[in-house]
Amino acid sequence: MKRATRSVDIVRIKGVAATKEKDTVVRESSVTIFLNDEPTVTLQCTPKDLESLAAGFLFSEGLIKHGKDVRRVYGDARDCAVWVDAPDGIVPPNGNLTRRTVTSGCGKGLTFAGSVKHIMGAQRRAGKSTSSDIIASLMKEFQKKSQTYRTTGGVHSAALADDHGILAFSEDIGRHNAIDKVVGERILKGKETRGLILMTSGRVSSDILVKAARARTPIIVSRSAPTDLAVKLARELGITVVGFARGSRMNVYTHGWRIESGLGGR
Amino acid sequence: MKRATRSVDIVRIKGVAATKEKDTVVRESSVTIFLNDEPTVTLQCTPKDLESLAAGFLFSEGLIKHGKDVRRVYGDARDCAVWVDAPDGIVPPNGNLTRRTVTSGCGKGLTFAGSVKHIMGAQRRAGKSTSSDIIASLMKEFQKKSQTYRTTGGVHSAALADDHGILAFSEDIGRHNAIDKVVGERILKGKETRGLILMTSGRVSSDILVKAARARTPIIVSRSAPTDLAVKLARELGITVVGFARGSRMNVYTHGWRIESGLGGR
């Protein structure tokens, strides 16, 4: 995948055998997002789909409210920068914010988003429901798409889906970045994220819940585990968390009434 | 494991069967490190071994140079805080730093550590070497110790080891936190980290290399993949990176001369 991976020389050891080979590793860059020419954040990320990453990040942090707030966006992987033009009122918090470096893997802590509580009511009323069969089928599609992972073993994937299939898909060394990329892709196209299913290969921690609340996705499906704080937040925010979704198996941690299954809702 | 996990009610779905069960999830808290009463960083972490976490974090960020700089450290998981008393000259960068929130999963980006280059020379000369057999045996011990992972599937592990076995072991929702905890444990005991093998369950990104350089661990062993930037940094810093260490298999990405195997060094 262009710009997402790189070939390196390795020694592959299997028991007593050692051979010199080529291996593919995922790329990692420090990319700075400039909001109206103001450096806003530096993220360790996979330098691909930088426009979506920037739009999704600013949206997840509550700095922009919808795709229309992005008048122009231009990413340059060689310059390690993305420039976002937004209406004048939209500025990084604290005016000239010091350049915050947030890391790979996850990065994205800033979460100037202390204030997700006002979204809760809306989510709780969102009556979106689905079934365990549909989730199993979406996970199958999700796994199939995870191309860079299969090559490098080093990335996270994220997707936005409805009951009929995956609508946006992305990969990144950071699980937060991958989610920002799919959200950004949708809003840059002027499409809704509200009511969709958010899929992630990664662990579901509290900050993932904040992203889902911002995007108004009532269901999060993960191959991996949630933390206790994520479960607590999900309960409060009215978001359904499905973990360990592998094949036809899955654990439903919160708001199980949205998932039709043998047991029905609860 | 005390304070590291919590039990929650879930619906477990397997095909058409759905049952109400208990599941164990890993705990996640926002913990603030106070350095000489100054709030320095807020980390999303597993609220266990907070003293080691604080000492290791401050050391990894270059704010303290050795264990002796920690005159007193006191962590309180209920207050979500760790207080570190250090000599007067030691203050958070920029005097009164605004409270930075760094996230789970990885968090720990700050890396006020732009300046690891001076360490490079030392690492390059560090002649520590080991063998693929020893690494395989250390990984076996590492997997055995990963207790919370087996329960929750939601944590990362880290260890410091020599050729004879694991000397410090820790788990956390964040792979950076887990590494800081083992480094912190060693320095609080007045022990060296220099020359040891750093083991991690997580991906090896550039910031992990910075931590290894600070701790002067010449070898990093991971169950998972490195990024291209981590490989580049490792090459420059003189650090050996072993990835995908599973059973008797492993990939050696850099400075293979430290790993005796069928092929010998290179």
Major β-sheet strand ordering of chain A: 10-9-11-12-13-14
- Name the pair of protein chains with the most residues at their interface, and give those residue counts: A-B, 70 and 70 residues
Number of strands of chain A: 15
What is the number of helices of chain A?
7
Assembly context of the chains:
homodimer
The low-confidence parts of chain A are: 95-115
Q: Provide the β-strand percentage band of chain A.
A: 25-35%
Name the structural class of chain A.
alpha/beta
Percent of residues in helices of chain A comes to: 25-40%
SSE order of chain A in H/E notation?
EEEEHEEEHEHHEEHEHEHEEE
Largest sheet of chain A: 6 strands, mixed
Q: Which outline of chain A best applies?
A: flat
Overall pLDDT confidence of chain A = 86
The radius of gyration of chain A is 19 Å
N-to-C span of chain A: 43 Å
Write the layout of secondary structure elements.
The structure is a homodimer of 266-residue chains.
Chain A lengths: L4 E10 L2 E10 L2 E7 L2 E8 L4 H11 L11 E5 L4 E5 L15 E2 L14 H9 L4 E2 H14 L1 H6 L3 E7 L2 E8 L2 H14 L8 E4 L5 H10 L3 E4 L5 H10 L2 E7 L2 E4 L6 E2 L6
Helix pairs in contact in A: 1-5, 5-6, 6-7
The gist of it:
Two copies of one chain form a homodimer. Chain A contains seven helices and 15 strands.
Describe the structure.
Two copies of one chain form a homodimer. The first copy, chain A, has helices at about 50-60, 115-125, 130-145, 145-150, 175-190, 205-215, 230-235, and strands spanning about 5-15, 15-25, 30-35, 40-45, 70-75, 80-85, 100, 130, 155-160, 165-170, 195-200, 220, 240-245, 250, 260. With about 270 residues, chain A is α/β, with parallel strands linked by helices. Helix content of chain A is about 30%, strand content about 30%. In chain A, the strands form four sheets. Chain A has a six-stranded mixed β-sheet with strand order 10-9-11-12-13-14, with helices on both faces. A five-stranded mixed β-sheet of chain A has the order 5-6-3-4-7, with helices on one face. The first copy, chain A, is flat and about 55 Å long. Chains A and B meet through strand 1, strand 2, strand 7, helix 7 and strand 14 of A and strand 1, strand 2, strand 7, helix 7 and strand 14 of B. Strand 14 (about 250) of chain A pairs antiparallel with strand 1 of chain B.
